[in-house]
Specification:
Elements lengths: L8 E6 L18 H16 L8 E2 L6 E2 L6 E7 L3 H6 L30 E8 L4 E7 L6 H17 L34 H4 L4 E8 L1 H11 L10 H21 L8 E8 H4 L13 E8 L7 E3 L2 E3 L2 H18 L8 H15 L5 E7 L17 E3 L8 E6 L6 E8 H7 L3 H6 L1 E2 L5
Pfam families: Transferase (PF02458)
GO molecular function: acyltransferase activity
Family: Belongs to the plant acyltransferase family.
């Protein structure tokens, strides 16, 4: 169960000299700064008629959304710098100022708000004429697929103009409850935060960029371990970052590498996993959490100079087999077994309570259509994710070319100190390079 106060941030940057529709023609629509915001607000209002839950609020019992039409939040900010200054060395921590600040849940004791918006937008106007659209949506009802669909539909509505009466996109359906029967959470115990989550630890987020040729090299180096199936980009990068994070933890804590187990969790889109697959226009949060455990027997530690290391091929095989086993046993047929899915989540929450185990979570926003979002002044120059403030988290998102990947990694300062200097990681990744 995902707390409704979790709002994953997204940022779409548009340079002032973008071409309309990416066609190569100079922008036919030269808007003044005040017109940018008016254009966005009007098209947002139209889009919300199809994504109506995002304009509602949680009920007091937090078991449903009340479609009250209270609306989304829209704010405007003027940024006293140019986009080129942001792009030179973008700081995920600094970028949090470009997404809307949503307040804390009201004080009813269960972490659920009946007053906060489920969608908030911030339009950032830069001195150079560029614009950045920052969004936050409640993760309780919106996953990556729904967020991508919403942004795509909003952009198409804005680009289509105000004179058309035709809907320029596939209308989403918010009928996930008919596929995934809700459970009675009011009468079930909720997992309590683990001691590690309550600890006073500073977590920072840094950006690691993997260019397409480096990813291809890594895939080639690991192909024999995963034969006959070619390893995916996200799989090999997940294994690499997991490996380097465990090694960094060992160095920062002075705990031998082979003495501490670790878990790796990632989100699985259930729409694609069902038989037959569900429509990608199914709105909501149709995501399951699956995880893999690396035991001390795998992390046996091989001596190279004076450092203990993990064999990357062993880890990537473990990750692939673990995911295949989880995929094979997870309920993906109708009628959906909500109780079995809930047991899986409870199993993971219990696992996270083990303070003797290192836990790393991940999410992939690759293959989404963020870079196609043209609101009338061209496609995004850059799409990024600011710091989420969530511990031990990795989020993957495509580069603009659709082949490279940016990884936003949030770990403790002590782990980051060793992670960002890991020679194996730096062999494939650049730490926070210029966007352009």
């Amino acid at each position: 169960m995902i707390p409704c106060h979790v709002y994953p941030p997204t940022l779409l940057f548009y340079a002032a000299n973008n071409n309309v529709n990416g066609s190569g023609d100079m922008a036919a629509m030269r808007m003044k700064k005040r017109d940018y915001c008016q254009h966005l607000m009007q098209s947002l209002a139209k889009t919300l008629t199809h994504f109506y839950p995002l304009a509602g609020r949680w009920s007091k019992g937090h078991d449903m959304i009340q479609c009250t039409d209270d609306g989304a939040e829209f704010v405007t900010a003027r940024v006293k710098c140019s986009l080129s200054q942001i792009f030179e060395h973008p700081d995920p921590e600094m970028l949090t100022g470009l997404v809307p600040a949503i307040g804390q849940p009201d004080g009813d004791g269960d972490g659920v708000s009946t007053t906060l918006p489920l969608l908030a937008v911030q339009a950032n106007l830069f001195d150079c004429g560029g614009i950045a659209i920052g969004l936050k949506m409640s993760h309780r009802i919106v996953d990556g697929t729904t967020a991508s669909t919403f942004i795509s539909c909003w952009a198409k509505t804005a680009l289509d103009g105000s004179d058309s009466h035709q809907v320029p996109f596939m209308v989403p359906k918010f009928d996930a409850a008919s596929y995934f029967p809700p459970l009675d959470f009011l009468n079930s115990s909720q997992p309590s935060p683990s001691p590690a989550e309550l600890a006073d630890i500073n977590y920072i987020t840094k950006r690691f960029v993997f260019d397409a040729p480096k990813i291809a090299t890594l895939q080639s180096n690991l192909a024999s371990a995963l034969a006959p199936h070619a390893p995916t980009r996200v799989l090999v990068l997940s294994a690499l970052i997991w490996k380097c994070a465990m090694e960094a933890l060992s160095k920062s804590s002075n705990i031998p590498l082979g003495s501490r187990p670790s878990s790796f969790k990632l989100a699985m889109d259930l729409r694609r996993r069902f038989e037959p697959p569900m429509s990608q226009t199914l709105g909501g949060n149709a995501v399951a959490n699956i995880f893999v455990i690396a035991t001390p027997s795998l992390l046996k530690g091989q001596k190279e100079s004076d450092d203990e290391t993990i064999d990357l091929k062993d880890l990537v095989v473990k990750l692939r087999k673990g995911l295949e086993q989880q995929n094979a046993t997870y309920p993906t047929k109708l009628p959906f077994d909500s109780n079995e899915a809930w047991k899986r989540d409870q199993e993971y929450e219990k696992l996270r309570g083990n303070v003797d185990m290192y836990h790393l979570c991940s999410g992939s926003w690759c293959r989404f259509s963020f870079y196609e979002a043209d609101f009338g002044w061209g496609k995004p120059t850059w799409v990024s994710i600011p710091s989420t403030g969530i511990k031990d988290l990795v989020i993957f998102i495509d580069k603009r070319d659709g082949k490279g990947i940016e990884a936003l990694v949030s770990v403790s300062e002590e782990i980051m100190e060793h992670l960002e200097s890991n020679p194996e990681l730096l062999k494939y990744a650049s730490v926070n390079p210029s966007v352009m």
